[in-house]
Amino acid sequence: MNNNSLKGKVALITGAGSIGGQGAAEARLFALEGARVIVTDLENSEGAKVAADIGEQAEFVPLDVTSAVAWAGVVAHVVAKHGRLDILVNNAGIWLAKGILDTSPEEYRKVVEINQTGVFLGMAAFAPIMKESGSGSIINTCSNAGLKGGGMPLAYAASKWAVRGMTRAAAWELAPFGVRVNAICPGVIDTPMIHGGPEVLDMLAKLIPLGRVGTSEEVARLALFLASDANGYVTGAEFVIDGAITA
Ligand SMILES: NC(=O)c1ccc[n+]([C@@H]2O[C@H](COP(=O)([O-])OP(=O)(O)OC[C@H]3O[C@@H](n4cnc5c(N)ncnc54)[C@H](O)[C@@H]3O)[C@@H](O)[C@H]2O)c1
Q1: pLDDT at 191
Q2: Hey, which of 31, 52, 197, 239 has its CA 20 to 30 A from 171?
Q3: Nearest C-alpha neighbor of 139 from the set 217, 223, 37
Q4: How confident is the model at residue 152, as a pLDDT?
């Protein structure tokens, strides 16, 4: 990739207001590659700082991905300011380390609302704009938990399997309009979502064939390929980035 692979493109990333998170890394890399980046996250996140650190190519727009009304407001803002959206990364998500024996209905619904319905609402909000322009790249953040059930928390796995399913369905539906839809399935990535510090990361690293956890920057580089014009023909696919743990 050169430093201009996203020149002229407008990208929106959800959940990008976590310093050290995958969304923030994607925002930084996309801007470096020439895109204008709309960093979105909850109002009380570090999104304003992430955007300020990137500079004038980025702006922070608060967005709770579970709110259809909020998505409509963001669409109006993006259309008024840029007239287009080329790249949508549905990255926002939460983790819940509980199984069927200890997940409450409220906890289940909350995980599904953010990880699953949030992705649906994002695609539903921006697909008409991309369809109209005849191009676009949507990248949905799935997980290893969307590839297997064993060892995975119940609500989280359910939400990520749904992301995989809707990625494929939307790819099929939007392909005739030049819009690509793909999913990234990270394994263990060193972000604020993985609490516990170096000891936990070392313990997890021992389970991974590559011998280490992944980084946000590595996930961002995969997202960059899917977002850029270097990817012309890949759509409806899942990309595992996990050091071979599910191999
Ligand atoms: N870190 C990992 O090991 C790992 C592995 C597989 C998949 N993932 C997925 O990658 C994505 C990014 O996670 P991360 O590791 O960077 O975690 P992170 O906790 O650093 O970032 C997640 C962001 O999502 C935001 N968010 C939560 N609820 C939201 C809502 N309702 N609306 C908008 N934003 C909301 C948070 O504020 C946070 O900034 C998530 O979808 C996660 O499930 C992470």
Answers
A1: 97
A2: 31
A3: 223
A4: 87
Q: What is the pLDDT of residues 13-50, one digit of tens each?
A: 999 999 999 999 999 999 999 999 999 999 999 999 99
For the CA of 213, the closest atom of ligand 1 is 3
2 found inside a domain: no
Predicted pLDDT at 1: 56
Tell me, what CATH number does 113's domain have? 3.40.50.720
Return the ligand 1 atom nearest residue 188 CA.
3
- Report the distance separating Cα 28 and Cα 31, nearest Å: 5
Q: Tell me the pTM.
A: 0.98
- Do residues 176 and 231 make contact, with C-beta atoms less than 8 angstroms apart? no
Q: Which residues of the chain have pLDDT under 50?
A: none
Catalytic residue among 71, 108, 156, 161: 156
| Mutation choice for ligand 1 from 94, 164, 194, CB with most ligand atoms inside 8 A | 94
Residue 241 lies in a domain: no
CA of 15 to the centre of ligand 1 (A): 6
Q: What does the pLDDT read at residue 158?
A: 98
176: nearest Cα among 242, 139, 131: 131
CA contacts within 13 A on the Cβ side of 236: 11
